[in-house]
């Protein structure tokens, strides 16, 4: 069973979000165990203060190291950061971290260690937590969140759905988006005609060779338009470059034609 611990000053943040969907199912099936810890319970400060003014000056407050260290010792039953790091993957959530991706989700879903997510507020955590306690630092994207809590939730969701037995159709999980550096194709369902907006005709044809080709074309063109970074990786493979050339030639010719008629 995967053991997940969350260190936060806002335990209530996780109340509803862990009680629905895949995370709820993973808990019910005992595939995952999740514990929320209040950092304020792990301070020796008489007023339960968990932050203080930054050395060197500047605006905002910085979270003190003590609650993070004490909590990790408590969870792992250890007394030194080295021992704690050996028993747990200690993940510090920070916009200064390495960008989270599907490969990291897969790696974390397979770990034998406990996972500890350290959530700090945006202004910052004393750097000694990053340097001497955490085993890795993760960011979920180039934007600013008020704290690490939403990021922890994002990462936990991505991990939990990869555990065999959580999602009903494991095969569908295995061959999803990003494993091939292409966006997924779009889906349609009934009705065929909704307020005059129609489902692409090919999908109703019953011709699976045509349908597969249509879907691959949508994946390639949408990735080219929306995610040049992924597209660049996709065409690193020679056979993919050939496929992309074929679909994009038609697409680019079409958009040229449209430009001329506009
Ligand atoms: Cl992990 N934390 C915060 N505070 N902001 C973020 C983030 C994390 N990832 C992206 N923005």
What's the main sheet like?
5 strands, parallel
**Alpha-beta content class:** alpha/beta
Top CATH class of the largest domain: Alpha Beta
Low-confidence stretches: none
| Strand line-up of the largest beta sheet | 2-1-6-5-7
Strand residues, percent: 15-25%
Oligomer: single chain
- Our count of domains comes out at 2
- The CATH superfamily of the largest domain appears as SPOUT methyltransferase, trefoil knot domain
Helical content stands at 40-55%
CATH topology of the largest domain: Alpha/beta knot
The CATH architecture name of the largest domain reads 3-Layer(aba) Sandwich
By DSSP, the count of extended strands is 9
Q: Mean pLDDT across all residues, rounded?
A: 94
- Number of DSSP helical runs: 10
Order of helices and strands: EHEEEHHEHEHEHHEEHHH
């Amino acid at each position: 069973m995967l053991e997940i611990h969350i260190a936060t000053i806002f335990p209530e943040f996780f109340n509803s979000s862990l009680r629905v969907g895949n995370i709820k199912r993973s808990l019910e099936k005992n595939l995952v165990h999740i514990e929320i810890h209040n950092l304020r319970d792990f301070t020796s400060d008489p007023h339960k203060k968990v932050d203080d003014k930054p050395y060197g000056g500047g605006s905002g407050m910085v979270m003190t190291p003590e609650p993070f260290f004490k909590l990790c010792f408590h969870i792992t039953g250890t007394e030194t950061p080295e021992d704690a790091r050996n028993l747990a993957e200690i993940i510090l959530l920070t916009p200064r971290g390495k960008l989270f991706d599907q490969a990291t989700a897969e790696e974390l879903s397979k770990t034998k260690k406990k996972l500890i997510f350290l959530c700090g507020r945006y202004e910052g955590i004393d750097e000694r937590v990053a340097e001497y306690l955490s085993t890795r630092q993760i960011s979920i994207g180039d934007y600013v969140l008020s704290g690490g809590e939403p990021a922890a939730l994002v990462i936990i969701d991505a991990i939990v759905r990869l555990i065999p037995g959580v999602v009903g159709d494991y095969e569908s999980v295995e061959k999803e988006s990003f494993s091939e550096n292409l966006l997924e194709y779009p889906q349609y369902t009934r009705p065929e005609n909704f307020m005059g907006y129609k489902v692409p005709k090919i999908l109703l044809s019953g011709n699976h060779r045509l349908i597969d080709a249509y879907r691959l074309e949508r994946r390639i063109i949408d990735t080219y338009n929306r995610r040049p970074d992924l597209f660049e990786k996709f065409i690193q493979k020679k056979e993919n470059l050939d496929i992309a050339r074929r679909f994009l030639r038609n697409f680019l010719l079409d958009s040229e034609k449209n430009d001329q008629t506009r």
